[in-house]
Amino acid sequence: MRCVTALPSDVEPVGTSLADRAYVAIRDQLIMLEIRPSEPIDDDALAQALGVGRTPVREALKRLEGDRLVVTFPRRGTFATGMDITDLAHISEIRVQLEPLAARRAAERAPRAVREELDALAGQIEHLDVGQVDRTGLMRWDLAVHRSIYRAAGNPHLEDVLVRYDNLATRIFCLFLDRLASVDEHVGEHVELLRSIAAGDADRAEHLARVHVTGFEQAIRAVV
Asked: SS3 letters for 172-202?
């Protein structure tokens, strides 16, 4: 059997401006917990590390504050947003409504070329060697699946909302990943979901997306 260990291609297009690039780079560090929850953010150090000026970094941090990934306090500075179990309930309450909707719309609306891409992604996930992929790699695969479904739904407003909340959910996932025993099952659930969308089975896709989101919340709560 062919095993896949390589990371997926870029999860989403990166803008051309320095601020866009800084935004994506800092956002990924926040999502993957390279910048830990509640950790202070040094914009000078970030600018130096990213090879950009302070202005693009500050613009990026303003966007990230709108994404609830950072928070700024007067006279104290900017910090990575903290996390607690209440966040999981609030985020899941939104995702359990919107993730199934996106899956349904993707199954109903996605053109043939997009369905073929989703089916191909399912094949890659099916042969993914989970034991040989590190935490960051697993999260990139998870993000790639969800982003692909959001785009396939054909509603940019729905996509924007779901990307924001999937980012927040991924932070929680990363926080507890080392304690979860069923990561391979979670990743594997994407295969049937993607193939249901590719086949145009909207009812099945909606159901699987809902099960996926509720299962994620239950798995996290079991190890808290």
From this structure: HHHHHHHHCCCHHHHHHHHHHHHHHHHCCCH
Give the mean model confidence (pLDDT) for residues 92-100. 97
Average pLDDT taken over every residue of the chain: 89
Q: Convert 64-127 into a string of H (helix), E (strand) and C (coil).
A: HHHCCCEEEECCCEEEECCCCHHHHHHHHHHHHHHHHHHHHHHHHHCCHHHHHHHHHHHHHHHC
Measured CA to CA, the distance from residue 23 to residue 29 in angstroms comes to 10
Give the dihedral of Cα atoms 68, 74, 79, 82; nearest 10 deg.
-60
The 3-state DSSP class for residue 128 equals: strand
For residue 138, count other CB atoms closer than 10 A to its CB.
Answer: 20
210 falls in which pLDDT band (50, 70, 90)?
very high
Instruction: Work out the burial of residue 190: count CB atoms within 10 Å of its CB; fewer than 13 is exposed, 13-18 middle, 19 or more buried.
Output: buried
> Which residues make Cβ contacts (< 8 Å) with residue 204, sequence separation at least 6?
107, 196
